[in-house]
TrEMBL record:
<dbReference type="InterPro" id="IPR001675">
    <property type="entry name" value="Glyco_trans_29"/>
</dbReference>
<keyword id="KW-0325">Glycoprotein</keyword>
<keyword id="KW-0472">Membrane</keyword>
<feature type="disulfide bond">
    <location>
        <begin position="141"/>
        <end position="291"/>
    </location>
</feature>
<dbReference type="InterPro" id="IPR012163">
    <property type="entry name" value="Sialyl_trans"/>
</dbReference>
<dbReference type="GO" id="GO:0000139">
    <property type="term" value="C:Golgi membrane"/>
</dbReference>
<keyword id="KW-0333">Golgi apparatus</keyword>
<dbReference type="Pfam" id="PF00777">
    <property type="entry name" value="Glyco_transf_29"/>
</dbReference>
<keyword id="KW-0735">Signal-anchor</keyword>
<dbReference type="InterPro" id="IPR038578">
    <property type="entry name" value="GT29-like_sf"/>
</dbReference>
<dbReference type="GO" id="GO:0009311">
    <property type="term" value="P:oligosaccharide metabolic process"/>
</dbReference>
<keyword id="KW-0808">Transferase</keyword>
<keyword id="KW-0328">Glycosyltransferase</keyword>
<keyword id="KW-1015">Disulfide bond</keyword>
<dbReference type="GO" id="GO:0003828">
    <property type="term" value="F:alpha-N-acetylneuraminate alpha-2,8-sialyltransferase activity"/>
</dbReference>
<keyword id="KW-1133">Transmembrane helix</keyword>
<dbReference type="InterPro" id="IPR050943">
    <property type="entry name" value="Glycosyltr_29_Sialyltrsf"/>
</dbReference>
Length: 357
């Protein structure tokens, strides 16, 4: 019965939400593959010079609040963290668990108003038994965005040295990227869009999916299964695939829409008027609740490097353009820069010297 429903779901969605679904596949892709998107559009070479000026104005403005000589300001950190925890409760709510989402209750999608999903015994049985961040206070966390600024950064060692490493949307780690991005992963997100793009929505062979997750070891695989109804079936397929074939691999868990609602509200109240925060901001916010020192890498929404003006690609692993999205990246980045300035999070923009911490 349940299986049948899951099979039917996509059909129903395709019929009634065709354009919406397509839009969100695109946008969700942006969300994760590029936590902080570029503000200016990449133009043709002809408009390059003018775009350059505009870029440099934006970069100069952004750098006003950036200092590479960063020092943590304990009082600001504590204040921000306690505010965030009191409103969002990541520790007890970030992940769907059997205690925060009981049998018979309703899961209310955070990204769309539609019929909530009832927690059936079958669904309940795959919810995490325990909150993975219960009591978690990691000494240091690295949240690794996928920005091209990480290319040739030599930040891999520094990223690996964090106690807890968070990555976004199953980014490539091998192929020579290790030096720049490291290879340690404790949590990695997987958006439905990438499951569709890279793994045929897990409708065909599933082993390649399981095998491609090897680099993440036994990290938590965070699936935003309950943001939009069309995300649910593919996320459940990812879950079942790992349950069936991935014993040694990542541990799939579901992002809690209740946490997402709280987080969206938190940032909305601070002037972020996007539909919902990007994955990068979600992960940075999560880290702020569970880590004592939060380092952000690969967050830079411009296509020129701040230090030497060299061109940088869209992602550290490719230069694929992303379409416009539902997030307001410039505003998000401004907020993060503000926290950087206040000594709350440490944004790393420069290249790292591998042997120095
Ligand atoms: C820099 O910080 C100041 C004061 O905190 C703020 O008013 C300004 O908007 C910030 N600029 C940018 C580009 O974030
Ligand atoms: C972890 O949390 C549980 C319940 O919140 C508590 O009973 C336990 O003592 C905590 N453990 C540690 C090591 O803090
Ligand atoms: C990285 O460095 C290599 C070798 O120096 C160079 O060919 C490449 O263009 C650089 N990539 C970026 C994005 O700067
Ligand atoms: C990361 O790379 C190092 C060196 O190549 C290797 O020893 C280690 O096992 C790798 N770690 C993970 C989690 O893949
Ligand atoms: C980068 O370009 C801007 C504008 O073209 C210029 O003002 C700035 O000095 C350049 N910075 C470096 C490090 O070359």
């Amino acid at each position: 019965m349940k299986t049948r429903m899951l099979c039917l779901l996509p059909v129903i969605l395709v019929c009634s939400f065709c354009s919406v679904a397509f839009w969100f596949f695109l946008t969700n892709n942006n969300v994760i593959t590029r936590p902080v998107s570029k503000i200016p559009q990449k133009g043709s070479d002809a408009s390059e010079s003018c775009k350059g000026c505009k870029d440099s104005v934006l970069i100069t403005k952004a750098l006003e609040n950036y200092s590479s000589k960063w020092k943590k300001q304990e009082a600001n950190f504590k204040k921000f963290r306690s505010l965030l925890s009191s409103k969002c409760h990541a520790v007890s709510k970030a992940v769907v668990t059997q205690s925060n989402t009981p049998l018979g209750s309703n899961v209310v999608y955070d990204g769309e108003r539609r019929k909530p999903l009832q927690v059936t015994p079958a669904l309940f049985s795959i919810f995490a038994k325990e909150q993975p961040f219960r009591n978690a206070t990691f000494e240091s966390c690295a949240v690794v965005g996928n920005g091209g600024i990480l290319s040739n950064s030599s930040c891999g060692q520094k990223i690996n040295s964090a106690q807890f490493v968070i990555r976004c949307n199953l980014p490539p780690l091998g192929n020579g990227h290790e030096q720049d991005v490291g290879n340690k992963t404790n949590l990695v997100t997987a958006n439905p869009s990438i499951l569709h793009e890279k793994y045929s929505g897990l409708m065909d062979r599933r082993r390649p999916f399981v095998e491609s997750l090897r680099p993440y070891g036994q990290a938590l695989l965070l699936l935003p299964a309950f943001s939009y109804a069309h995300n649910t079936p593919v996320s459940l397929r990812a879950f079942y695939t790992l349950e069936d074939f991935g014993r040694e691999g990542p541990l799939p868990v579901f992002l809690n829409p209740d946490y997402m609602r709280r987080l969206s509200k938190f940032w909305r109240e601070r002037g972020l008027n996007s539909v919902r925060p990007s994955t990068g901001l979600i992960m940075a916010s999560l880290a702020l609740e569970i880590c004592t020192n939060v380092h952000l890498y690969g967050f830079w929404p411009f296509n020129k490097h701040p230090h030497d003006n060299r061109s940088i690609t869209n992602h550290y692993y490719d230069d694929r353009e992303s379409k416009k999205n539902v997030h307001s990246m410039p505003t998000e980045f401004e907020h993060l820069l503000k926290l950087h300035k206040q000594g709350v999070v440490h944004i790393h923009l420069g290249d790292c010297q591998p042997n120095r911490r």
